Amino acid sequence: MPWLMLNRGGLTILVHPETGDDLADHSDHAVWLGPSLTLDLSVLS
Predict the structure, then answer these.
(1) Spelled out in words, what is the top-level CATH class assigned to the domain 2-44?
(2) pLDDT (tens digit, 9 = 90+) per residue, 27-39?
Protein backbone atom coordinates (compact mmCIF):
# COMPACT_ATOMS: atom_id res chain seq x y z
CA MET A 1 0.00 0.00 0.00
CA PRO A 2 2.81 2.51 0.60
CA TRP A 3 3.91 2.09 -3.03
CA LEU A 4 0.35 2.77 -4.23
CA MET A 5 0.14 5.85 -2.01
CA LEU A 6 3.30 7.30 -3.55
CA ASN A 7 2.70 6.25 -7.14
CA ARG A 8 -1.05 6.45 -7.73
CA GLY A 9 -0.54 9.46 -10.01
CA GLY A 10 -3.82 11.14 -9.12
CA LEU A 11 -5.89 7.98 -9.49
CA THR A 12 -8.51 7.05 -6.92
CA ILE A 13 -7.86 3.52 -5.64
CA LEU A 14 -10.02 1.29 -3.45
CA VAL A 15 -7.99 -1.18 -1.37
CA HIS A 16 -9.81 -3.95 0.50
CA PRO A 17 -9.20 -7.41 1.95
CA GLU A 18 -10.76 -10.59 0.59
CA THR A 19 -12.48 -12.22 3.56
CA GLY A 20 -15.25 -13.92 1.59
CA ASP A 21 -17.79 -11.25 2.59
CA ASP A 22 -17.71 -9.07 -0.52
CA LEU A 23 -20.17 -6.49 0.80
CA ALA A 24 -18.24 -5.89 4.04
CA ASP A 25 -14.90 -5.98 2.21
CA HIS A 26 -15.97 -3.20 -0.17
CA SER A 27 -17.72 -1.06 2.48
CA ASP A 28 -16.68 -1.63 6.10
CA HIS A 29 -13.10 -2.83 5.50
CA ALA A 30 -12.19 -0.62 2.52
CA VAL A 31 -9.54 2.09 2.39
CA TRP A 32 -9.57 4.80 -0.27
CA LEU A 33 -6.41 6.33 -1.68
CA GLY A 34 -7.56 9.66 -3.08
CA PRO A 35 -11.12 10.95 -3.00
CA SER A 36 -13.71 8.28 -2.22
CA LEU A 37 -16.28 7.41 -4.85
CA THR A 38 -19.83 6.18 -4.52
CA LEU A 39 -20.00 2.43 -5.15
CA ASP A 40 -23.04 0.50 -6.33
CA LEU A 41 -22.91 -2.12 -3.57
CA SER A 42 -26.22 -3.71 -4.66
CA VAL A 43 -24.30 -6.00 -7.02
CA LEU A 44 -22.51 -7.56 -4.02
CA SER A 45 -25.54 -8.63 -2.00
Answers:
(1) alpha beta
(2) 999 999 999 999 9
